[in-house]
Write a structure and sequence with these properties.
The complex is a heterodimer.
Chain A lengths: L2 H18 L25 E6 L8 E7 L2 E7 L12 H4 L15 E4 L2 E4 L2 H14 L4 E5 L5 H15 L4 E3 L6 H11 L9 H5 L2 E5 L3 H4 L1 H8 L9 E6 L1 E2 L8 E4 L5 H15 L4 H7 E5 L9 E3 L1 H8 L4 H8 L3 H11 L6 E5 L1 H4 L4 H14 L9 E4 L6 H6 L17 H11 L14 H8 L11 E5 L3 H4 L3 H4 L10 E6 L11 E4 L8 E4 L4 E5 L12 H14 L17 E2 L2 E2 L5 H4 L4 H10 L12 H6 L3 E2 L3 E2 L5 E2 L31 E5 L15 E6 L15 H6 L5 E3 L1 H7 L6 E5 L4 E7 L5 E2 L3 E5 L27 E7 L8
Parallel strand pairs in A: 6-7, 6-16, 8-9, 8-14, 9-11, 12-26, 14-15, 16-17, 17-18, 27-32, 28-30
Antiparallel strand pairs in A: 1-2, 2-3, 4-5, 4-18, 10-31, 12-13, 19-20, 20-23, 21-22, 24-25, 27-33, 28-32, 29-30, 29-33
Chain B lengths: L1 H5 L4 H20 L11 H8 L16 H6 L12 H7 L12 H12 L24 H4 L3 E3 L2 E3 L72 H4 L39
Antiparallel strand pairs in B: 1-2
Helix pairs in contact in B: 2-3
């Protein structure tokens, strides 16, 4: 075979394979080619580690690259989280980089149209907007920010501009978990870890569908059955899901009445004397709401606790929740068995809840009261939906009230400590908390003269145009107001870039260095493996470049006490120009930012190891404490004598950040109260929103992956067949869903992915063509300010038909 | 299970089986922990239970099996499934058939595999509709593998995993309505992708002509070689000696691909 022939055949075989991907029709094509010329045999592939880009589970993948492109992905067998397994999103994560419509140039809106501009111009436009009104500038970030990205934004705002108007989309997904941990233990994040899943006897899922949302964690539990383990799975839910199919028990409750269920179980434990008296006497205290309500509440006695709970008899709980009293007793039987190891999991069902903080404290309280705490397999564990909701938002504290390492704006000592680490003058950090997410967007959508003090928002790594609730009220008005400017950094056109004034093209995942933190306190690291497309650049570089531009303009605050640039990195006494993209990768900026951030992690015993330790590991769980021999040891079970080096006493556990400063965790009484909106004559259905296995968040990545889009091409509404009959709706019929706030039209699916109960419907939010958040409610939890996407009142009718009688 | 093994030994055996089933049911209901139930043989059950008169008085017939029921069907569609069983069973190729393969068969096999995989090593998509809420229906065909009407339902290459749809999703529109969905327009950009996946891990290497080739691909999720290389596999991938049972005796997997030695983690 001569060389020309070889090349021709080589091209042909590659073309045949390319054409055949995903196309059943190509099965018939059997072009004869020499196997030796097939493109890219395995030998040429370079493999490297990275955490998956999608959810908060924190699986590690092996990324295979060839000729500067990602060509394959494999589960990482050395990763303790996933042990070589992934879910369908993880297996296809490499395709997320290669959607045809990647943003590759900065775009500026001129006469209503986005036109390409240079990076120099883009950075200048952004910094001019900020310099003109620094206190009217807000940063809206994300649980998909890497740790260094979030840290840079946090530092620019709080140490640089002296403004606390920085918040992140994690406000919408886990801030009730944060307030739940704070109110119970005085410090954020779970005590247990995924190891609990390997040894628990009972797994209770509170409003949680991990078979679709955290599939790798779910299979870590259910696959134990293949090995002969007996595990009891309990699904406490408002609809039937794929998770239900694996469960031994399902408790179907009326939306919002999960509080009554938890109270009912605690009441039974007290009544039967089946609680852990020794554990409670040694390690717990009781609390209830104060007036006015605060996160700390007020102390009550166990007798007072018992008296208040007494209302929640099994029969009363049945009346409120619709869950049979026998099932309430069954839960109490489980929690009342000291020999069983019980792990609770929850995610958005309990967090996106106007009583989310209350519900979180109740589940912690149930575990504490029953003593199902602090032994492997006995743990209340909240899950997160984003790869670094914990690592970046909770730990770096990129929230309107937060500082890195669990420090808070409200505490003067904390502010002082932060100013010292940042080496900025005392008083630089504003003492007043900034605007939380809903408030930030509300003010952005309000004219300045009517209190709308936010004039510019910079959005990074998230898509609020699709994910904020009640978009008509929070986002759309700003687009018609003069003097409001929206900057969006993203990788694809989204519902948010569509309405932006300035669009900055970003690097994605392994196109940049990164670090993230998952749901079990595990901090993970990866290196850049391929170049971003076109002129796309790292979000962290964008932040530093704008900071430098502000510095050069003389905006106060961009220099530290010694007059040096806030983000200065020096080598041999000379500052490296990292704000210049050509030089950004001359040094590992991630490593420098991370090492600076580490100093913050000592205050609340969230110790992180040096950067190089994470390079070697598949993540480490904090606190990571150095041993006498110089090695670094992670902590699996926080607050336990047997594993946590910070435990002081000889008891089984020590809550060393107790809100009462006496080593005790708090068991809360939280009464059930009806939600702010319930179905009525005009809006007779409950609407619940959420995700599906194939798509992640707003679908901006997964809808561009053919295998995932083919398996779930469009949003739909799940309707119970009985309701569908009354509405005259069949599979595929277009249905209008309408609330007091907005409406969408979408097809009905009667026997689809999940099964709702009569009088309720479910819509996934991944589809940008069906903006269900025009319909959802923006009421939020009083402590966490997290909105409730899981319940509001809607009406349905067949599209084109007149509204049906209700 | 038991009925298959004992079928054809006459009505006495069927009687014993029926009694066993009744006996097990009785014990299950009576015992607090059915898993600890002592094993009861059919004969022993028959001996124990018959004198008690539990079933002896009832007229005893022979329950037909599902296969027999299928064959007994009447009416216009009575012959609907005739030959189906034979197709399932007869499809297992003779392990001693001598294979004739060309290099094109190998390429053809890769092309066919690529229709359902984003890259070599990706979990294959499902070429048929599935029940959206069901979880273990897949096992009916894929537990042991089957050939139905010329189409292969491959035997799962891995075990221990309970949630099939965690990794495998349909490649066909899963929705039960036909035609384009109103409102789906304006989505031209969605799902268009420039990803170009790894085509193949290549072929194994041989120390010298005639030596057994090494395993060129990772073995994670590929614990059962016969899924692809056995008699029901694609011609280009089939082993010429399916009668040999211990593949790893001669074919060595890669320590690098299987992560048995540390991958490099320094900056690339």
């Amino acid at each position: 075979m001569d060389r020309r022939d070889f090349l021709r055949k080589s091209a042909m075989s590659a073309a045949v394979l390319a054409a055949s991907r995903g196309s059943e029709a190509a099965e018939a094509s059997k072009t004869a080619v020499d196997p030796a010329v097939l493109a890219r045999s395995g030998a040429g592939v370079t493999w490297n580690k990275a955490p998956c880009r999608f959810c908060g589970t924190g699986c590690h993948v092996q990324v295979g690259t060839h000729n500067g492109r990602v060509v394959a992905v494999a589960g990482d067998r050395l990763a303790p989280v996933n042990q070589g397994l992934l879910c369908v999103k993880g297996y296809h994560v490499g395709l997320a980089l290669y959607g045809k419509d990647r943003l590759t140039r900065p775009l500026l809106r001129k006469d209503g149209v986005l036109v390409p501009i240079t990076w120099e111009r883009a950075i200048a436009v952004a910094s001019e907007r900020i310099a003109a009104d620094p206190k009217g500038f807000a940063f809206y970030g994300s649980g998909q920010w890497t740790i260094p990205e979030g840290y840079a934004a946090q530092k620019l705002m709080k140490a640089g501009l002296g403004s606390n108007h920085i918040d992140a989309n994690a406000r919408l997904c886990m801030s009730s978990a944060v307030t739940g941990f704070l109110a119970t233990y005085g410090v954020d994040e779970p005590a247990g870890c995924y190891d609990d899943l390997d040894v628990c006897d009972v797994l209770i899922m509170w409003g949680n569908n991990p078979a679709e949302m955290h599939p790798v964690l779910f299979s870590r539990v259910v696959d134990r059955r293949s090995r002969g383990d007996k595990i009891t799975l309990v699904d406490i839910a408002t609809r039937t899901t794929r998770t239900t199919g694996f469960c031994d028990h399902q408790l179907l409750f009326r939306p919002h009445t999960d509080l009554a269920i938890a109270n009912g179980v605690m009441n039974l434990l007290l009544e039967r004397g089946a609680y852990d008296k020794e554990f409670v006497a040694k390690h717990c205290a009781f609390r209830a709401d104060s007036a006015p309500a605060t996160l700390q509440g007020q102390a009550i006695s166990i007798d007072e606790f018992r008296r208040q709970l007494a209302l929640y008899t099994p029969d009363h709980v049945e009346k409120l929740s619709g869950v049979p009293a026998a099932q309430i007793r069954l839960l109490a039987d489980l929690f009342g068995s000291p020999k069983l190891r019980i792990t609770s999991l929850w995610c958005m069902g309990m967090n996106q809840h106007t009583a989310g903080t209350a519900m979180n404290t109740l589940v912690h309280g149930l575990h504490l009261l029953s003593g199902h705490f602090g032994r492997p397999g006995d743990a209340p564990t909240s899950l997160t939906g984003q790869p670094s909701a914990c690592g970046t938002v909770r730990e770096v504290g990129t929230l309107a009230h937060g500082l890195p390492g669990g420090l808070v704006i409200a505490n003067e000592k904390h502010r002082k400590e932060a100013e010292e680490i940042w080496h900025v003058p005392a008083g630089r950090i504003a003492a007043q908390a900034g605007h939380h997410t809903i408030e930030m967007w509300k003010r952005f959508s309000t004219p300045k003269e009517r209190g709308g003090d936010i004039s510019t928002i910079w959005v990074q790594v998230t898509n609020p145009g699709q994910s904020l609730p009640n978009r008509h009220a929070l986002v759309d008005p700003s687009r018609k107001l003069p003097g409001k400017f929206l900057i969006v950094s993203d990788v694809y056109p989204t519902a948010t870039t569509a309405i932006a004034d300035l669009v900055l093209p970003s690097a994605l995942w392994v196109e940049k260095n990164g670090m993230v933190g998952n749901s079990e306190r595990r901090t993970q690291q990866w290196f850049k493996m391929v170049q971003p497309p076109g002129e796309a650049r790292d979000d962290c570089w964008q932040t530093i470049a704008v900071a430098r531009s502000l510095h050069d303009k003389g905006v106060p605050g961009l220099k530290d006490k010694d007059g040096k640039f806030l983000f200065a990195i020096e080598r041999d006494g000379k500052e490296l120009p990292i704000w210049d993209w050509k030089h950004y990768y001359d040094v590992n900026v991630d490593e420098h930012l991370f090492e600076e951030y580490r100093a913050f992690t000592r205050f609340k015993h969230k110790d992180l190891a040096p950067y190089r330790e994470y390079v070697r590991a598949r993540g480490l769980r904090w606190p990571v404490v150095q041993q006498k021999d110089g090695s670094w040891r992670e902590t699996r079970f926080r607050f336990t004598k047997f594993d946590d080096p910070y435990v002081r006493s000889d008891g089984r556990v020590d809550f060393y950040h107790s809100p009462t400063e006496d080593g005790r965790a708090q068991i809360w009484f939280r009464p059930y109260a009806p939600p702010p909106e319930v179905p009525d004559k005009d809006f007779p259905f409950w609407l619940c929103t959420g995700r599906v296995l194939e798509h992640w968040h707003t679908g901006s990545l997964t809808m561009r992956i053919p295998q995932l889009a083919a398996a779930m091409p469009q949003a739909y509404v799940e309707v119970h067949p009985n309701d569908a009959r009354v509405l005259g709706v069949n599979n595929g019929d277009m249905v209008v869903i309408e609330s007091r706030r907005g409406r969408v039209t979408l097809p009905a699916w009667l026997d689809g992915r999940g099964a709702p109960v009569v009088g309720s419907v479910f819509v996934p939010f991944f589809d940008e063509r069906v903006l269900i958040n025009n319909v959802t409610l923006d009421a939020y939890d009083p402590f966490s300010k997290q909105p409730d996407y899981k319940k509001c009142a809607v009406r349905l009718h067949k599209a084109g038909a007149n509204r049906l009688p209700t | 299970m038991i009925p298959t093994e004992l079928r054809g030994r006459g009505s006495r055996v069927w009687f014993a089986v029926a009694v066993t089933v009744a006996g097990v049911g009785f014990f299950s209901a009576a015992s607090p922990d059915p898993e600890r139930l002592p094993r009861v043989t059919a004969e022993a059950a028959a001996r124990q239970m018959t004198p008690a008169g539990l079933v002896a008085a009832a007229p005893v017939g022979v329950a037909p099996s599902y296969t027999e029921l299928r064959d007994l069907r009447r009416g216009d569609n009575g012959a609907m499934y005739s030959g189906a069983t034979a197709a399932l069973v007869g499809a297992a190729a003779d392990a001693f058939t001598v294979l004739t393969k060309t290099p094109a068969d190998w390429t053809g096999a890769l092309v066919q595999r690529a229709t359902r995989r984003a890259y070599a090593g990706a979990p294959p998509t499902i070429p048929h509709p599935i029940a959206q809420l069901a979880t273990n229906a897949c096992l009916a065909c894929h537990e042991a593998g089957a050939i139905i009407g010329g189409r292969v339902a491959p035997r799962m290459a891995h075990d221990h995993y309970q949630a099939c749809t965690q990794c495998h999703v349909p490649s066909v529109d899963p929705r039960p309505w036909n035609g384009p969905t109103p409102g789906a327009s304006g989505s031209g950009a969605l799902a268009l992708n420039d990803f170009s996946g790894l085509d193949t891990f290549g072929r194994g290497t041989r120390a010298q002509p005639g030596a057994p080739p090494t395993v060129p691909h990772p073995t994670k999720m590929r614990a059962r070689c016969d899924t692809c290389h056995g008699p029901k596999g694609l011609l280009g991938l089939r082993t010429p000696h399916p009668y040999r049972q211990s593949c790893s005796q001669c074919h060595l997997p890669s320590a690098v691909l299987d992560q048995r030695i540390a991958f490099r983690t320094e900056r690339p």
